[in-house]
Amino acid sequence: MLRRRPVVVQRRGPGLLRTAATTAVVAGTATAVSKGVSGSMDQAAMSKEQQMEQQQVTKSATNQAQAELEQMKAQLAAMQAQQLQADQARATTAAAPAAQPDLITQLQQLTQLKQAGALSEDEFQAAKAKLLSSK
Question: Is the pLDDT assigned to residue 117 strictly greater than 80?
Answer without folding.
Answer: yes
